[in-house]
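It is worth pausing here to work through a concrete case rather than discussing structure prediction in the abstract. The textbook approach is simple: state the sequence, then state the predicted structure, then interpret. We follow exactly that order.
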Amino acid sequence: MDQKYIEEMVCSRRKLHKIPEEGWTEFQTTYFVVEFLRGLGLPVFVGKANLNLDEVLGRDVELVQDSIERALKAGVPQSFIEETEGFTGAVAVLDTGRRGPTTAFRSDMDCVIVRETKDADHLPNKLGFASEHPGLMHACGHDGHTAVGLELARWLVEHKDQLCGKFKLIFQPAEEGVRGARAMCEAGIVDDVDYFLSGHVGGVIGRGEVAVMDGGFLASSKFDIAIEGKPAHAGNAPQQGNNALMAACAASMMLQGIPRHADGVTRVSVGTLHAGEGRNVIPAHAKLQMEVRGETKEVNEFMKEYVYDIFAGVDKAYRVKSKVELAGESTTLMQCPAIYDKVEEVMKKIPGIKVLPRIHTPSGSEDCALFIRRVIERGGQAGFVLYGCNHHGHHRPNFEIQDEQSLPIALSIYTGFAELVNGIGGKVK
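Step two, the predicted structure:
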């Protein structure tokens, strides 16, 4: 890999690391991406143009507005905000002008709600590119994913004469909470794609290691729940109140007791619970954020049905009203054996890396699974790769990706795959 691509990619990653933005609020990031791509001469579609708005999940209008104001203060032009129409994400298209397959690469852009460590040994602190947004951090490597996608775009433009067909470069918002892919898929942006490839830094493998994922992602459903009770004086007339806090606590315990399933592993988590107005007031309001996961779509649906039933029961028992909203949802990783050999062929040509056996251990969820399923169900080939790093744990304050070593491997996988399936004279049948 030419050193110029590596240097530019690392530079982009570190700039993006400084401006982490949670799902559906990535206006600074989207502007950075769009300006980069348009600077290469690529047509770029922004915001609503890439989304089926009926399928947008987990988008907080107040957070969006706050992030727009932050972006404007940071120098993002008002004209660009207007172009997005309040929605983040971008898709660039490169048409070589020669007949060939349509190949798509996807990068996610959002961060997680984690406060970055102040440890002096942490590389972003050492080199001055730590998060400038308090309480937000690229603690899952999406800054790296975006940087790889951008440098891939540069490589494709500069090697256009050696390629055929079309390329789509998808920069997805709101992967965390599996909220963004659904709306993009339902907009049809990958319906004409012959080959689709995406990946993730880290995971279960270390620096210098790569692997194809041929399973393992759990189907998942995320919920935002609001419980409305009735306030009352806790000392004078507690019987007049309906306690939303106690209802939320009871529901949380009952959720942990959902029966496990013989047909696959399950997960359940109540991540946040906020309730109450004061120590002497019967709590009238409670809010929960929670999720369930299942090894198959069917197992996840089993878990999901219990969620609705539990809150229906709590409503009756505690005389409250629960509003259960689906805030995100993804599926399992659909297998596509046809693409795995192609990807591993590319991996084996990259010097100095170790190609591990294919990974399918049930673990985590990934919004990209929706893209993969959509492409495969329409006759294309799609896959997902891991390129390792020594990360100290995803979603942790000291997460790190060793960008100078890890990201070039990802770029080499993507450029190698593009050469394999879209190279002139080397087109895969």
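Step three, interpretation. The two ends are 27 Å apart (CA to CA). The first helix runs from residue 3 to 17.
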